[in-house]
Amino acid sequence: MFLHSRRNQIWLGLLILGLALDLWIIVNHTPMIPQQHWAQKIFYIHVPVAWTAFLSYFVVMIAGIAYLVKKDNRWDRVGLAAAEIGTVFMSLVLVTGPIWAKPIWGKPWVWEPRLTTSLILFLIYIGYFMLREFGGHPERIARYAAVLGIIAFLDVPIIFLSVKFWAPEVQSHPQVEMAKQPTGILGPFFYSLALFTILYVFMMLFRIHTLKLKEEVQSHAV
To answer: Where in the chain are the domains?
Structure first.
């Protein structure tokens, strides 16, 4: 089993310690931003979580292309695992965003471009999982899911570049570049970003392993 491996147990322990340290740094060693105060600290979680979700959806797209070309079920497992994990992180994006927005905007949600396109991506993947559940023949499901995963990724650059696509007056998100952030922010931010990326890789390896075991059990039962 995946978690019976000594190496994986060590990695899991290091990740737990790293996440605890990340939280401690965010609370105690990141600067307060005027007009945002404690709400700003969600930035160190919200942005890395969003990055991880987008990275995972990129993997879904690559796996989908590979599956359509090679017809290898290993790529279907990678795509499904990445879709599941990406959607977990995307749901966290949609939760942590309103936590920041409530004290800053006075309400947790406004229908501005970045929020709206992020919600659309989340809903596309709800449809993706419905397809996986009710699509019929396994080979047809894998093929359709691969195509949908490729198409869905088109929304990711739209989300990322939404602050440039739409006029500033219709947007609520701040448009400050990372290089212009105040001193003391970038170090903790990049630590959190790296940590969530490593966490993502660990989750992917675990989920691919469990999906492979599930397929083996199903094949033996037939």
So the answer is: 2-221
